[in-house]
Amino acid sequence: MVGKLLTVVFEPDGRRVFVSAGMTILEAARRTGVGLRSECGGRGVCGKCRVIVRDQHAVSDITDVERKHLSKVEIECGYRLACQTRVLKDVSIMIPLESRLESIKILTSGFERIVNLDPMVRKVYVALSKPSLTDVKPDFERLSDAVGVVEIDYDVLKILPNILHESNWSVTVVLYGDRIIGVESGDTANEVYGLAVDIGTSKVVCHLMDLKRGETVGVGSMENPQVIHGEDIISRIAYASSDSRNLHELQKLVIDCINNILNGLCGKYGVDSGRIYELLFVGNTAMHHIFLGIQPKYLALSPYTPAIKRPINVKAKDLSININPNGIVSTLPLIAGFVGSDAVADILATGIHEFDGNALLIDIGTNTEIVLGGRDGMICCSCASGPAFEGAHIKHGMKAVSGAIERVKISRGLEVEYSTVDGSKPRGICGSAIIDVVAELFRHGVIDRQGRFNKNIEAQRLRRGESGIEFIIAWASETGVGYDITVTQKDIREVQLAKAAIYSGCSILMGKKGVTEKDIDRIFIAGAFGNYINPENAKVIGLIPDVPIEKIMFVGNAAIAGAKMVLLSKDLRMQAESILKLINYHELAADPNFNNEFMNALPIPHADINRFPSVKELIIHPNI
């Protein structure tokens, strides 16, 4: 017998859902589609799924995990963690502004090189001679002779006779390489489109392309909806591996996301989705597998092998993608481990596979991919830099949404200047500003090389909070949330862990190639987050190697740029496969020096200060 269902109402939207007793508030929110932050996937680690429960008798007792993340004042005001709180009676839940998933500041474009227009998809208009008693050539052979190809999709062949007869033998043939994937009535040769997609761990970006003219028609993006099951790829893999239905759910979430972006672009620009014949996507290995419905479990288990590496093509209808049903969903090759087709796209966009000398490519994200080398050979790795730069595990951290502090400057008197996304009142602090804060506190001697606060400094903005010393970035009276926005000792440690993961990856690759910072001719910083960071501050904290600023180039979303280039050029598609012969993958988890490199990279900027000569001056002459 099924027990009585309980009603949960989510305010301020007024959405309601009926649930069984004992379900967590987070699961109830997921079922009704309420956008509630949960960077750790509901494991009680991030503390971001804060909600306000007016009637505490309607829910389970507060847990030790909640007491760890919530202050006494917050608990007294009814704050709870949605992932830890179970529904016992009908209840109304308020989702505060800082806990809501909103449109984030997404970098949708990147550095692009000029390509010769020669896409896989092309259309040819033909006016065929009609069959007669003296010309009984079959329909396909008649069409094949006109366009010079000998392969046709089975689904197209089935309807070919009707199309030819109903069109009075004047048709447009849709070709994918040397295969016919469509035959359309009349002359539609000018209507040929493709979609380039970057499936990131945090974001999904789509570029609608006119393949006839080689132009971008429109751009759309959304946060990857899979974040409700965890901010990082390991959380997603764990969720997908626990039940086949979970893998299907994650796959459907990202497919629905792409379709929503696609439908919006087609509506906005007046493009018939049936005239889109290829969707080319890139992403890390985990995102690749989940999108295709391939079990990702073994990516997280030694020896971390993917199910497939080479490019594959799938019919759009088999994935329920809303382009032409016979259109092709394609991907670039994977490299190894978690280094996926997005890294291949990065390489193509920046051209480092043709680079004379040594170029370092760092695509910063929750899963950071690093490539070092040039035309004579490359080496790559991936590192779990984690979501700290996305605002996770930071007390007042948030994504780059409206109200997020994105730039910080601290003066000699420890006064703070900041700017926010959209100029709104501050509600939290995002990744680019976290780097600024740590660098500025270090410059002014407020924290030492180990990231510890200097207890000898007395300043109005330095105080002891519930979890130790913290620095106030914005006073409560300035904010849109009604409380001080601070950076804590734990926050600084999270930044050190993230930057150490990235720098140690760079350092190990440099050692493998036998190069030093002086040998690096160019650093390409890619990724949505990377485009917004201050390069000097990134060097100060030891996030990237200490090279002159003029050698650092921000290339934005290079993955989507590379995907677009491949969509427009068969030659670049072949180059993508040839890159695999030039590049070697290095598994950091198996490197005997990794732990030592990582520990040396934890101090600011590094245990070996001689590796950061430009920062060494700050230590000798701190700007107090």
List the helices and strands and how they pair.
Layout: E1 6-11, E2 15-19, H1 25-32, E3 50-53, H2 64-69, H3 72-76, E4 79-81, E5 91-94, E6 121-127, H4 139-147, E7 151-152, H5 154-166, E8 170-176, E9 179-185, E10 193-199, E11 203-210, E12 215-223, H6 233-242, H7 244-269, E13 276-283, H8 285-292, E14 313-315, E15 328-331, H9 341-350, E16 359-363, E17 368-374, E18 377-383, E19 404-410, E20 416-420, E21 428-429, H10 431-443, E22 462-465, E23 468-474, E24 485-488, H11 489-513, E25 522-526, H12 535-541, E26 552-556, H13 558-568, H14 570-582, E27 583-585, H15 594-601, H16 613-620
Parallel strand pairs: 1-5, 7-9, 10-13, 13-15, 16-25, 18-27, 19-21, 25-26
Antiparallel strand pairs: 1-2, 3-4, 3-5, 6-8, 8-9, 10-11, 11-12, 14-15, 16-17, 17-18, 19-20, 22-23, 23-24
Describe the model:
- By secondary structure, the protein is of the alpha/beta class.
- It has five domains: 6-99, Beta-grasp domain (Ubiquitin-like (UB roll)), CATH 3.10.20; 121-185, Roll (Ubiquitin-like (UB roll)), CATH 3.10.20; 195-331, Nucleotidyltransferase, domain 5 (2-Layer Sandwich), CATH 3.30.420; 354-386 and 504-619, Nucleotidyltransferase, domain 5 (2-Layer Sandwich); 388-495, no CATH class.
- It contains 16 helices and 27 strands.
- It has a six-stranded mixed beta sheet with strand order 12-11-10-13-15-14, sandwiched between helices. The chain has a six-stranded mixed beta sheet with strand order 26-25-16-17-18-27, sandwiched between helices. The chain has a five-stranded mixed beta sheet with strand order 2-1-5-3-4.
- Strand 10 (193-199) and strand 11 form a beta hairpin.
- Helix 6 (233-242) crosses helix 7 (244-269).
- The longest helix has 26 residues, at 244-269.
- The termini are far apart.
- The relative contact order is 0.11.
- Mean pLDDT is 90; it is low at 103-109.
